Every structure is written in C-alpha cells, then in structure tokens.
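> forwarded from #structure-qc
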C-alpha cells in the first residue's frame, strides 16, 4: 500500500491504516464521524485529510484531559 500524502485510500486500506475493523469504519463513515466521500457504492478517503483529522482529535482529547 503506497501511503504518500496525496493518496486516496479505499475502505480496506484505511481500516488497515487505522487498525480498526472494516465494519467499524463503515459505520463511522456513514455517520460522518470520519472524513470521506462515497463514490458510487464505494468509500474513498484522502490520507492527508485523515491524518489532519487524527491530529485534530488528538489535540481535542488532550484539551479535554487537561480540563479535569
């Protein structure tokens, strides 16, 4: 799997990258909780967007922990 910054990932590739089950990823994508878009019947995800999303979530979690 080529994971350069401009890559577009399939659901299989992203599930492997995030180390989560595909079924969980489908649910998150359908609920709009993970950034992606449906192309026909298939989900596609930009790796760069996913990386930013992960960074943003990490910062939000850190702020929440700091408020306790």
């Amino acid at each position: 799997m080529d994971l350069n910054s401009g890559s577009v990932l399939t659901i299989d590739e992203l599930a492997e990258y995030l180390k989560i089950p595909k079924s969980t990823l489908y649910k998150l994508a359908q609920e709009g909780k993970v950034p992606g878009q449906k192309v026909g019947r298939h989900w596609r995800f930009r790796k760069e967007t996913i990386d930013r999303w992960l960074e943003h979530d990490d910062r939000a979690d850190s702020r929440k922990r700091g408020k306790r």
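QC bot note: The mean pLDDT is 87. The first strand starts at residue 8 and ends at 10.
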